[in-house]
Every structure is written in C-alpha cells, then in structure tokens.
Amino acid sequence: MMGTNTLFDPNSIFTALRLSVTLACVTTVMALGIGVPLAWWLANRRNWWRDVCSSIITLPLVLPPTVLGFYLLLALGPSGLGALAAHITGRSTFAFSFAGLTVGSVIAALPYIVQSTQAAFETTGRKPLEIAYTLRTPPFRAFLSVALPLAAPGIIAGAVIAFAHTIGEFGLVLMIGGDIPGQTRLLSIMLFDNVETGDWASAHAIAGGMVAFAFVTILILRLTQKRLTARP
To answer: pLDDT (tens digit, 9 = 90+) per residue, 88-108?
Structure first.
C-alpha cells in the first residue's frame, strides 16, 4: 500500500536530471553518427540486404523494451562483452553502468534517426547530387554540401525524437542499468521509485517536468520543421 511520504530532495532530482540529459546527448550524437550513413546507404540500395538491414534496425520499435533489455543484459554481461569491459573499466560487465546504458540507448534510438533521415534522402532524390556531379563536385563534398542540407528537416526530426525518447525511456534502462544513485538512476527510474515509496512531492515534480519537456520538444520539432521546409 502506498504511503504519503513527501521527502522532496532537489539534489537527487538534479543528479537524475543531469544523468538523463547527459545520456540523451551522448546517445543522440552517437546515433546520428551511425544512423545518417546507414540511412544514406538504405536510401540508395535496392537489394535484399537493404530489407534485412532495415528490419533489424527497426526491431527496437516493435520489441517490448524488457525483451530488448534482457538480450542486451546478456550481451553486455560477463559472458558477452564483459571480457572487453574488464580490460577497459576493470569491471566484469558493461551492464549496470553508464556505458551499458549508452549502448542500449543508442540501439533503441537508432530507428528514429534512420527512418526519418532515410525518408528525407529518398524524398530529395539523387537529382541534386547529379547536378553537383556535373559541376565536378567530389562525391563526398556533394554529400556534405547538397544531400545533408536538403535532408536536414528529417535529420533534425529524428535527432529530436531520439533525444526525447532517451529522456523518457524506462523499461530498457531499468533492465540494463538498474537503479544505482548517481550512476544509472535516471529521471524515469526515480519517478518510479518515488511512486513506489509514496513520495508524491518528488513524483509530481519529476512527472510535471517531463510533461513540460515533452511539450516543448514537440513544439520545437514542429517549428523547426516548418522553418526548414519553408526555405527556398
């Protein structure tokens, strides 16, 4: 039965907020570095490997977070990447650490960036690049100066959604990160803890802040897309 404890602790909330924002920033940057080249490859291939790769990337969207978290827990544990973790961090596992949270969060955020960016690349098509090639622009430079700017609305949309999704993720981060104060206790985990213990003041503060963040994120996304798509 839930109690009525109201031990509001701003310091703990700030620590969880800092971890959540740090994780979301790192995850978004890494997912962009992996997802944009992947999206370009998927948008310009028409073989059966394309469909296989696209399906694998999309899996985190349809799998329950606990299922994905379970297999990542095995992969990051002593029988998986734990040997590598022992050399890098001295621990026998990447699980229940910020590094493990980052790996899981990147995998979960990747579909949002890949799908949005791939759609943007396919919408713009190859004609602008072909024009750049006729002007003797090197392929990589043409990609950076032509393809990426034209796909910017899709890339930004994917990045914003990936960032917001990472902030609000619960099941996956609980499975592979646990609930370690100052290390893996994110805002979503802290909210769950506060509800379980009946700390309604902290729960209201966290939940209200996350609702406001979600609203601002959606508003920024819509305004940014509207501004970018309105450019000549």
So the answer is: 666 667 788 888 899 999 999
The whole-angstrom distance between residue 22's C-alpha and the CA centroid of its chain comes to 12
Quick one: pLDDT at residue 80?
67
Query: In 3-state terms, what secondary structure has residue 7?
Result: coil
Type of residue at 163: F
- Measured from the Cβ of residue 4, the count of other Cβ atoms closer than 10 Å reads 8
Q: Is residue 13 within 8 Å of residue 207, measured between CB atoms?
A: no
Alpha-carbon separation of residue 164 from 28, 88, 175, 197, 215 (angstroms): 9, 30, 19, 26, 10
Interatomic CA distance for residues 218 and 212, integer angstroms: 10
The Cα angle at residue 119 between residues 116 and 120, in degrees rounded to 5: 85
DSSP 213-225: HHHHHHHHHHHHH
Is 162 strand, coil or helix?
helix
Alpha-carbon torsion (170, 176, 180, 182), positive or negative: negative
Residue 140, phi then psi, degrees to nearest 5: -65, -40
Q: Which of 68, 93, 97 is nearest to 81 (CA)?
A: 93
